[in-house]
Design a protein that fits this description.
Helices cover about 65% and strands about 0% of the residues. The protein is mainly alpha-helical. The termini are far apart.
């Protein structure tokens, strides 16, 4: 069965909104687990727990890739009714301004907490500081983390989206020409069968095998070439795939086998642990599983989330400011409870639930004035 494209439409894709919202909310699960896993982070619990390692690795396989794929699809919908210049102007207001504001709202507290946690185990950048938050402000501008203080931490995703929007702008402009747009629609129509969609994932594997050994992930923007190739490809792929909504309908019918295959490859990759089969084999399994997850999630969203879903759809407005705020609350609570070591599971849920509540409260407060809405990328308040 092949998916057939339909005429362009400005109708909102609730399945894509709900899928993105679920991925953003799961960041609470992911980043709270970072308090307890075995890799250095901004603040750490004294213990190291295999379950936290498993949660981090499992979610890391597909969580950011699906957000970049969905971002590419959102770009196509955004360009349906505006010029490329208007689109870039919006990217400045909705990405660059919140990135700058978010560095001070959400990143500054994290760096400060890490600096005053002298002697804490597992800090990614164990530089100590003694003094109050205002005393630390001049120190914050020393660049760059982890050797110094200035950073955008988890806001790297926003920085990368903005950079990719600029990098792809000439392609977006070129696609305004009727022959190019027609060719892209034909490409999207050609991709409307499952075997061809599976082939679309091969470059993800190839790029990782080629670049990742030389360019480990840094999120530093400059020199992070493996991540750039990976995420730029996913964003461009989403931009093309959005032209054929029939793909999601086709994937909805294939979601069960795709999901089962994705789970199988994930289990295989998690069991391998990067130690037994050689780097190339492990990377191939991981990123083949990643692509299957992306296809399965698009299908599952079309099948189960294509409509208004209680709470999840209402979260659409706040997904972006929630992303900005959530990690700061996790790091602050992790520092506040750094000596709570006797019940890690209870501590995990306490940090996760309080961070969730605090992040939602932050979003609601930010929505109460035009200035704060502007700073966190919210559109004008709705009636």
């Amino acid at each position: 069965m092949e998916a057939t494209p339909c005429a362009p439409s400005a109708a909102r894709r609730l399945d894509l909104d709900n899928l993105r919202n679920a991925a953003v909310l799961l960041l609470i699960v992911f980043h709270t687990a970072r308090l307890f896993d075995g890799e250095a982070w901004h603040i750490k619990d004294a213990g190291h727990y295999w379950l936290a390692d498993t949660v981090v690795r499992a979610l890391n396989q597909w969580q950011m890739p699906i957000l970049f794929l969905l971002a590419g699809m959102a770009v196509w919908h955004a360009l349906e009714n505006r010029s490329v210049v208007a689109f870039l102007r919006e990217r400045v207001l909705r990405l660059l301004v919140p990135l700058i504001a978010g560095i001070f709202i959400a990143v500054y507290p994290q760096v400060y907490v890490e600096r005053i946690a002298a002697g804490a185990p597992g800090r990614a950048s164990p530089i100590d500081f003694a003094g109050g938050p205002l005393d630390f402000l001049p120190q914050f501008f020393s660049c760059c983390y982890p050797q110094a203080n200035f950073s955008y931490h988890h806001l790297w995703f926003i920085a990368y989206l903005f950079a990719y929007s600029l990098a792809l702008a000439p392609l977006f402009a070129l696609a305004r020409a009727a022959p190019v747009e027609l060719a892209l629609r034909r490409a999207a129509a050609w991709l409307g069968s499952l075997p061809r969609l599976l082939l679309l994932g091969v470059p993800v594997i190839a790029l990782e095998l080629w670049l990742r050994p030389s360019y480990p992930s840094t999120h530093a923007l400059a020199g992070d070439w493996a991540n750039h190739a990976h995420y730029l490809y996913l964003m461009a792929a989403g931009w093309v795939l959005a032209r054929n909504p029939g793909i999601a309908r086709m994937l909805a019918g294939k979601a069960a086998p795709l999901g089962a295959a994705a789970v199988g490859l994930s289990v295989l990759w998690l069991a391998e642990g990067g130690s037994g089969w050689g780097r190339g084999v492990g990377m191939t399994i991981r990123h083949a599983g990643e692509w299957l997850w992306l296809l399965a999630l698009l299908g599952l969203a079309r099948r189960f989330l294509d409509g208004r879903v209680a709470l999840l759809t209402a979260f659409t407005r706040y997904a972006f400011p929630f992303y900005i705020a959530h990690q700061a609350f996790i790091v602050i609570l992790g520092w506040f409870w750094i000596s709570w070591n006797d019940d890690p599971l209870l501590k995990y849920f306490a940090v996760a639930l309080l961070s969730l509540a605090a992040s939602l409260a932050f979003c609601r407060l930010a929505d109460m004035s035009p200035t704060t809405r502007f700073l966190v990328g919210l559109k004008r308040s709705r009636a």
